[in-house]
Specification:
Length: 260
């Protein structure tokens, strides 16, 4: 039975037309699945479903998500992360020949938390990609994430002793108490555009929202892949930020708050 699958051009390019067509006809796709994003059940025969290709160093796994949760995309992860993902979404994946895929795209992971600076709590967003970010139009194995941000006005930080300067033209969009996007200036003075946008609005804590309303700005820190990790507590997040700063792997700015 044909499936209501979204297979993006980048996913099709990685898995090939033949595999993509088998998915769309239902030959190699599950009917029911647990969404790789929200973990609730889905049915590719009844609702639009995204194909999400996770690519590790040696393994590639195709998973499925509600189209309302995630767009069809390629996500580059470490082999360890991929094996963990396979264990958590077992039964809802399609194994692929590693020779079929080439890691290309990283996505940005965003964590919210309160950061204590000079005795005061500030709302913060911490951005870390799932893989190296290369300069657009170039190829190679380097990571240009921090240089690209520095060129945009982000400040290199060696410690978190004071609030970083405001990056004018950028803002953090919070609406109805939820985090929606990080906006950057549009081209030629046009309307701001999303530098990062949540697939679904992200919940933030009441304390984070109160601090954002108080300061009317949000601190944003960014670090290369592997520098911060997903920390379960704010004290551990702060420790990871301090370590990244001491290692010269942290940039940051303050951004005005857009919304409420």
């Amino acid at each position: 039975m044909p499936r209501m699958l979204d297979v993006s051009d980048e996913v099709r390019a990685e898995i090939g037309d033949e595999e993509a067509d088998r998915l769309l006809t239902g030959e190699n796709a599950p009917g029911s699945y647990d969404c790789t994003s929200c973990r609730t059940p889905g049915d590719s025969g009844q609702e639009r479903t995204s194909t999400v290709l996770f690519v590790g160093e040696e393994t590639a796994v195709l998973a499925f998500a509600h189209a309302t949760c995630l767009p069809s995309q390629v996500v580059q992860v470490t082999e360890e992360q991929l094996q963990g993902a396979v264990r958590s979404i077992s039964g809802n994946t399609v194994d692929l020949d590693p020779a079929q895929v080439v890691p290309e795209q990283a996505v940005l992971g965003v964590t919210s938390g309160l950061v204590l600076i000079a005795g005061e709590l500030h709302p913060a967003l911490v951005v870390e990609p799932t893989g190296p970010i290369v300069r657009p139009g170039t190829s190679g194995l380097g990571d240009d994430f921090l240089p690209l941000l520095i060129e945009q006005g982000f400040m290199p930080l060696t410690e978190l002793a004071e609030v970083p300067p405001v990056l004018h033209g950028w803002s953090v969009l919070v609406a109805m108490g939820q985090l929606h996007a990080v906006l950057q200036p549009g081209t030629n003075g046009g309307q701001p555009v999303a530098w990062w946008q949540a697939h679904q609005p992200l919940q933030v804590t009441e304390g984070w929202r109160a601090a954002a309303n108080k300061h009317q700005q949000v601190l944003m820190f960014a670090a290369p892949v592997g520098s911060i990790g997903r920390q379960p507590r704010e004290d551990l997040l702060r420790d990871a930020l301090d370590k990244a700063a001491a290692n010269g792997k942290l940039v940051g700015v303050a951004m005005p708050l857009a919304g409420t």
